[in-house]
DNA sequence: GCCCGCTTCCATCCCCCGGCGGAGCCGCTC
DNA sequence: GAGCGGCTCCGCCGGGGGATGGAAGCGGGC
């Protein structure tokens, strides 16, 4: 079982370099190259590779858009982003697009080989500097401000708050919890004054900004 | 320059194992061990290690809480979570706590060594299975459904929507944009019908679930 | 020039939301 | 048993939100 790889980069020399690097590996086979995002999409559909080494900055269609299209279609391919830049925008857009890995071109070659094998196995791998960015995103963006008052909401009030953050009206919440809408209003009123908020809209904002119901 | 390591695990055998594994490495020095989270916090303050290998499940205080306390204090230490379980809750809580890495106990030993050196260098590293979880979090939780209709909101409507997602009332939005509140209502009405939503609450939910205004 | 879309404003209407006061029930603790 | 806190329900009221219809200026495109 060899890993079938498609190399996508607009620079001929870069493609040649990758091909050389991967040529020595018995379990890896470069089946084709593409020089634009558009080309990558068609090649991916035709050859159905296991792993796609994808550059980001390319003419015609960039690597992010190509990744979205490829992964949006019927495929088992996994995309490994391979770029010179580790800018935030690229990283997070790539992950949102569904890429399985993100390696920088100046990472050591072994790193690239390991990444190809890792994502071919269905796992995922990020370059250390990229990993740091991703973690910082979790550590900062998400824990804005744990609103202490949330702690002394009763279980019922928490439940109501959760449904509010789904966009439900009081009547809908009542049907959901098998209680009357007037009761829901009671809970809402109390919950708002406990959290010192004006209306349900602010409650939704608070919940999302502090990641109250992230898990669900 | 040796990397000074603190090993934290409630099982004696596990600690001994790590000590043995790290003993062979010239650039790594295990300076102490701790068997509880509470112990870890005091040892970290006293010895000021570079890297802390932290188990999660421990008596007295778990590794996540210990991590929070250590990183919350005045320290340059970096925490590498090392556990048997890669449950979602653990992973995301650990990253939020500020851990620099997450390695599983059944990962190959080289992985652990690489992780220690990587995070000592200020970078970050996650086990491939953990990386996959994190990425999926980005790929799914964040891009639930790009609401196509958002594209044909006018600039003004986008602006109003942005302020709605801050929890502002129509009157407040009007003051913010120097227009009357009746005009705001017009924009709101149109924006809601374009997005096929009932009220501003649902608009806020949509915006956050699709990450409309992530960046700001 | 004409039309269309965006933006602004107005009046009117209805309904949901949220505040306020009051009530009964349950289960817990003292 | 008395008391308390949580959950349930009711009525009343005011205000904000959202729908509808109408109007006007302004810009760009045909």
Task: Pick out its properties.
homodimer, about 220 residues, about 50% helix, transcription regulation (chains A, B), WalR-like (chains A, B), Sig_transdc_resp-reg_C-effctor (chains A, B)
Q: SSE order of chain A, as H and E?
A: EHEHEHEHEHEHHHHH
Chains forming the largest contact: A-B, 42 and 42 residues
Characterize the main sheet of chain A: 6 strands, parallel
Class inferred from helices and paired strands of chain A:
alpha/beta
**Which stretches of chain A are poorly predicted, pLDDT < 50 over at least 5 residues?**
none
Given the structure, what is the number of helices of chain A? 10
Please give the number of β-strands of chain A: 6
Residues in helix, % of chain A: 40-55%
How many whole angstroms does the radius of gyration of chain A measure? 24 Å
Q: Overall 3D geometry of chain A?
A: elongated
Strand content of chain A: 5-15%
Overall mean pLDDT of chain A stands at 86
End-to-end gap of chain A: 39 Å
Biggest sheet strand line-up of chain A: 2-1-3-4-5-6
Assembly type of the chains comes to homodimer
Keywords (chains A, B): DNA-binding, Phosphoprotein, Transcription, Transcription regulation
Organism (chains A, B): Nocardioides astragali
Protein name (chains A, B): Response regulator
InterPro entries (chains A, B): CheY-like_superfamily, NreC/VraR/RcsB-like_REC, Sig_transdc_resp-reg_C-effctor, Sig_transdc_resp-reg_receiver, Tscrpt_reg_LuxR_C, WalR-like
